[in-house]
Design goal:
Elements lengths: L24 E3 L5 E2 L38 E5 L2 H12 L3 E6 L7 E2 L4 E2 L3 H18 E11 L4 H12 L4 E8 L14 E7 L15 H4 L13 E5 L1 E3 L9 E2 L5 E2 L5 E3 L3 H9 L3 E2 L9 E5 L11 E2 L1 H4 L2 H12 L11 H11 L5 E4 L6 H8 L3 E6 L3 H15 L17 E7 L4 E3 L5 E3 L5 H12 L2 E2 L10 E2 L4 E5 L3 E2 L1 H13 L13 E6 L1 E2 L4 H7 L3 E5 L52 H5 L7
Parallel strand pairs: 3-19, 3-20, 4-7, 4-18, 8-17, 18-19, 25-27, 26-28, 27-29
Antiparallel strand pairs: 1-20, 2-20, 5-6, 7-9, 8-9, 10-16, 11-14, 12-13, 15-16, 21-22, 23-24, 24-25
Keywords: Methyltransferase, S-adenosyl-L-methionine, Transferase
Catalytic activity: a 2'-deoxyadenosine in DNA + S-adenosyl-L-methionine = an N(6)-methyl-2'-deoxyadenosine in DNA + S-adenosyl-L-homocysteine + H(+)
Protein name: site-specific DNA-methyltransferase (adenine-specific)
């Protein structure tokens, strides 16, 4: 394969992409939850702490600075592919960190997930989600996906296609177990965490704080006035002419770079380090030179790709956290420990950054992000969104969750979240099979839905009755289910042209308006565009019928929701003894195998 050829993963049905309906989100205030006040650092404060009155308290673990309690986090109940599409208009380019823990497609049946999709379907459904996630991410953001050996390597190639192979950051190995499984000849000790960024050139991770064991490596054998230090190699790989000079130690010993290496700096920089007392030649002054790095200057250490369970937790720790929260041993089979999420967010985000998890599971990502002062969005379809995630988040907000990372970040409670569900589909069929606007939609819902479909920001004006949204400072949206007459359109055009912000009469560079209505009478669309150049007319629902797959509510990674096989092309009938009881060729029975082929041919 030449260097210019692109490696692609192929599977049956790869070319098929759903035409997703960009649903609106409906808040249910009864399920939203907020702390009644902001939490302050004054432990002995006697005055009532009213929201907005107290100063923000410092966030433990973040060093100098303050933190505001965050109340506008989002928990979304519904299919995560539709939810991602619903978020796209508002949050494109804004998410700093995405963490997802998708079903691993192992063939095992879990309590809350039917985790055994046919390989091709799993790849297709993951691809559809990753493409939207890519658009939601900030250019300096990062994506972290936990996966096991069963699909990790296929997923890696697919992510290379979605994000670009050059934007692959690392494959982190998380030691998820504490001992091997006795039933296996070679037990899996780790999961993979694939890390990608939309633009690796703009990606800049935070360093990790030194642990106590790491800090012990800093000593002060020469009583350096700057305090404890640790030495580092003063050579670099390669051969650079201006870094191949001779060094002389304080005792007169000459040194040259080892074979295949050069000094780390050019000679003038070395002399500056030497004058500053930062070069170390050993206790006797005759050892090969090393450079001092001081503990007082240490900004932390860069993370690497091996994460031991002693550092970030393991499966059993995660299960204990869930049992502590919910009091049931059969809640979740594969939760992730809070320490693992803490490590990811420490590296990839700062306070107030936005974190997204579209496979929320037991809600660990939101709980950890909340305790660390990050904004968050979580999506979950299962009923455990109500039975587990909401109670968990309430405990976090109330300061009643004492487990996980609570103590290490000094979390005391506060903040809140808003609960949303996906609106029903916009278009349904009436009793005669004709497509009509869903009667569950009121006027406001319809205006918001059409704004999203047409690429407008939904923002009803309090003073302009015809302004339901805008795409620019002078381009607006008006939605009505009425039939508009030519006189009504004339009056509307006049008002739009003369409204504030329009310095010219219509057609002269002033405001423009997209009018979505049931019908318009007494004029054709062509005549309307000539007569009222500042108006664009579209009919509801005809204007959107071909846009989306209406009425499709579930694209979940669940074997129960797999698409039905497409009808078979006609094939010559075989002799009767070769056909099944329903007259089909016995070698070609309709089902999953029809649509996706044999397992060995899907990649």
């Amino acid at each position: 394969m030449s260097s210019k050829q692109k490696l692609e993963l192929t599977w049956i049905g790869k070319e098929k992409r759903p035409k997703l309906e960009p649903r609106i989100l409906l808040e249910d205030p009864d399920k939203s939850y907020h702390a009644p006040f902001r939490h302050c650092p004054r432990a002995l404060e006697k005055e009532p702490r009213v929201m907005g009155v107290c100063p923000p308290r410092p966030l433990a673990g973040e060093g100098p600075g303050v933190r505001e309690d965050i109340f506008d986090n989002r928990l979304i109940f519904g299919d995560n592919l539709l939810a991602l599409k619903a978020l796209e208009a508002e949050f494109s380019g804004k998410v700093k960190c995405v963490f997802i823990d998708p079903p691993y497609n192992t063939g095992s049946a879990f309590t809350h997930y039917d985790d055994g999709l046919e390989h091709s379907i799993w790849l297709g459904l993951m691809r559809d989600r990753l493409e939207i996630i890519r658009r939601l991410m900030a250019e300096d953001g990062s994506l972290w996906i936990t996966i096991d050996d069963n699909e990790a390597h296929y997923l890696k190639v697919m992510c290379d296609e979605v994000f670009g192979r050059a934007n692959f950051v690392a494959n982190v190995l998380w030691q998820k177990r504490t001992s091997p499984e006795a039933r296996l000849q070679l037990g899996a000790a780790h999961d993979h965490i694939l890390v990608y960024g939309p633009s690796i050139q703009k990606l800049q991770f935070n360093k990790l704080a030194l642990t106590e064991n790491q800090a012990k490596n800093f000593k002060n054998p020469d009583n350096d006035p700057k305090g404890p230090w640790a030495s580092a190699d003063f050579t670099a790989q390669g051969w650079r002419p201006n870094q191949m000079y001779k060094l002389i130690s304080p005792t007169g010993v000459e040194f040259e770079p080892p074979p295949g290496r050069c000094w780390s700096n050019i000679e003038p920089e070395f002399k500056k380090l030497l004058a500053a007392g930062r070069m170390w030649f050993g206790k006797d002054g005759a050892a090969r030179p090393r450079v001092k790095n001081y503990l007082c200057d240490a900004e932390g250490v860069s993370a690497w790709t091996w994460w031991s369970n002693s550092e970030v937790g393991h499966n059993q720790e995660a299960k204990k956290e869930v049992i502590h929260l919910f009091g049931a041993e059969d809640t979740f089979s594969t939760p992730k420990p809070e320490r693992l999420l803490k490590r990811i967010l420490e590296i990839s985000t700062n306070p107030n950054d936005l974190v997204l998890d579209s496979f929320a599971g037991s809600g660990t990502t939101g709980a950890v992000a909340h305790k660390m002062g990050r904004r968050w969005i979580m999506v979950e379809l299962g009923e455990h969104c109500h039975t587990h995630i909401i109670p968990r988040l309430k405990k976090v907000i109330d300061g009643a969750d004492k487990g996980g990372i609570t103590e290490s970040v000094n979390w005391q409670g506060g903040g809140g979240f808003r609960y949303y569900k996906l609106a029903p589909t916009l278009i349904v069929n009436d009793r005669w099979g004709n497509p009509v606007i869903n009667p569950e939609y009121n006027a406001a819902m319809l205006a918001e839905a059409l704004a999203k479909l047409e690429g407008f920001t939904y923002a009803p004006s309090e003073t302009r009755w015809w302004q339901h949204g805008h795409s620019s400072e002078r381009d607006f949206l008006f939605v009505t289910t009425q039939n508009l007459s030519a006189d009504q359109l004339q009056a509307l055009s006049d008002e739009v042209a003369l409204s504030p912000g329009s310095s010219h009469a219509y057609g002269g560079g002033g405001n423009t308006l997209l009018v979505c209505c049931a019908a318009f009478r007494g004029v054709t669309a062509e005549q309307a565009s000539q007569r009222w150049p500042n108006l664009t007319l579209k009919k509801i629902p005809k204007m959107v019928l071909a846009r989306c797959e209406w009425g499709h509510d579930d694209y979940s990674l669940n074997v129960a929701n797999l698409p039905m096989a497409a009808p078979e092309p006609e094939t010559p009938l075989l002799p009767a003894h070769s056909r099944d009881a329903r007259g089909r060729n016995a070698s070609k029975v309709a089902g999953t195998s029809d649509l996706f082929g044999d397992a060995g041919e899907d990649a």
